[in-house]
Amino acid sequence: MPIVRIEMWPGRTVAQKQELARAITDIICNVAHTTPEQTTIVFQDVSKDDWAQAGRLASEDDE
Q1: Architecture in CATH for domain 3-62
Q2: Single pTM value for the model
């Protein structure tokens, strides 16, 4: 049973997440030879204050 975890900044709409879920499920099923019912996708919105790259918080770019 594949589980795909997607972490991204907040701001995507429900429609965007639905489209991502459909597209990712299709790819997983085609490549991993599984079924949509066996494929789980978890979306987690991560605040820019909780996301850092190269030693800088992502929220620092908004300042």
Answers
A1: 2-Layer Sandwich (3.30)
A2: 0.83
